[in-house]
Amino acid sequence: MKHSFTFLGALFASGVLLASPALAATDAPYKIGYISDITGPVQGTFKYTYEGFKLFVDQLNQEGGINGRKIEVLLKDVQSDTQKSVNAVHELKSAGVLGIAGLAVSSTHAATYAAAANAGIPVVAGFPPNLPIILEPAEKYAFGVGEVFNQTNTITGAIARSIKKDAKRIACVSFEAPGSIYSCRTTLESAKKAGFEAAEIFIISQNQRDYRAVASNIAKFKPDIITDCLGQSHVIGLLPALGAVGYKGIYLNMETAIGDQVKRDGVKNAPDIDLYSYGRFISGKNIAKEGPQARKLQEAASKAGIKEIVAANTGGWVLGQVIAQGLEKCQGDCASSEDFRNALEKVNVDTGGLTGVNVQFTETNHFGPTAVRLYHYNRGTTNFDPVGDWHGIAPVRRADK
Amino acid sequence: MLSIEFWVNTLSSAGYYSLLALAIVFVYSTNRVLLFCVGEIGALAAFVTYSAHQALHAVELPLAASVSVLIALALVALIGAVLFWVIEQLGTNGSHFVGTIIAIAFALTLQGVMNTVWQGEIYRFEIAPVFLDLGESRVALLSLVVGVSGLALAAAAILLLNRSRIGYEMQALADNRVLSILRGIPVRRRIIAVGAFSGILAGIGGILGAAVTAISLESSTLGVNAIIAAIIGGLTSPAGAIAGAVLLAIVENLTTVYLDSRHVTLMPVLLLGVFLIFRPYGISGKAETVQRV
Asked: What value of ipTM does the predicted structure carry?
């Protein structure tokens, strides 16, 4: 009789377990895909965003995850190749991810977003540049926490004006990519609104190696301030070339995951250039005092052996915060990508000092308001010191641009 | 009116293009292999120089910069020698076409190695900026040094080829391999020596180019321009290679000043097209003749 009860008890217990797949599913980790260029030609830009994202996820998992479930990151290194990015979406769909984060160079974004939309998977693009399709009215499955130049550069003129009140002439240097050229056009519009009398765009080749003749052309324009929308290789080449042609004005760099060291190296051979930089995410050797999340990032980075936090690290950490809150707000067990997508539209993340304003998505705007902070390069300490308060940027409607 | 600054910049571009183009011509003259990995060898030399300097400077080694350059040049000489040893190993089964394919494979391998070791990072040599004020122009001393030293080294390499025993043997080898063997010239050793020598030329060109631009994986595209300069020069003429390099540098810099810097990458190809139409044997104008005996 005793044996019969034991048998019935075991049968009941196993029946409960078998009949409750939801119980088993709630213990399973949330699967999130991450597409990036980790070993490809632009790894110097994208690997640091992934580094920050991974630091956040690892820390979160160590603390128990979200709703008692850990996050499993499925990394796809697409090396900035569009076809590989599209293939990665299909592979991640098969692997059962709820959403995709990251993305590689902006030229791969449109195809990746389209493939993800067809698969019904939301994509949250990270830092640096994002496509304007995430601005209001946003595409259904497209989100982003990087920079959209249509929005960011509406304030560049005012920032330039804040640096030098009597500046009259401004030059903007871009490379031959639609986003970069558009960025400079928006910059010049904002500069004219800020009272600059003369403004000109200088466009360089994407694979420009020798900047000396370009620098001569820019110097002939006699700008008070030079601003940019460039990549790492451009900035490290252009700054010394400007120094060599005797430019003695202000260089205002837009931080697009270039990193502080590249700017330090570039300006070393240009002693007369006064270097400024502005960006959405904080960076530096000691950011802990900026807020609770900044302190957590600093601690996680120190443990990982990272001596200086670059803006891309911060951008990656914030991307992790956004994904985490999306999962937290996701209905029920967050069983489908559609549930996750709906949750992302309710995200309102206090980044704890890492950005000037919350990262906030709505049903129609998948980018939200942003803010940028200005930094001044101190040649003595080789630090980038914050200048003043954050500059808030109101959301820009896609249809307006 | 073009400024002195323009001509100094052009001179420096011509300096490093000349060395890279000369490396291509020496190799092509000896065994008809087109050295497609010349840009990658140059970029590798620049990366190694930078990293070696960082390491040696950290331990306060005297003459760290010079030692770093020597380490880099020894490495690229070895790479050049290995490349041509591999090509020679193919023996009679190999042709100049197969050799060129192997050079392309080497280029891809070197790109992969640089990508893995330096992980897409971009650096600059730490050279204190010194400027010369010449009237209304301000000239960077570094550009002047790069231009003069590049062209002087290129001229010295040509002299070495024309005045030394090894140089004569290399030319004999280029003219007739079978006859060279019969005359007792150590053909395999000479070809490997050409590979090493060309590696050194490409390495110096890469280091000089990086000194006025930056050290990056993208700088390996300099090799494409060097190949165009060599073809414009006639592909078998060392002096023609230097002339091609100078012409290319002038056209590139004029394009930036008078047209648009975005067209700089297009101009070498256009220039090559013009030469192929109107002067297919290049500046040196020597057509190769093949006789059936």
From this structure: 0.78
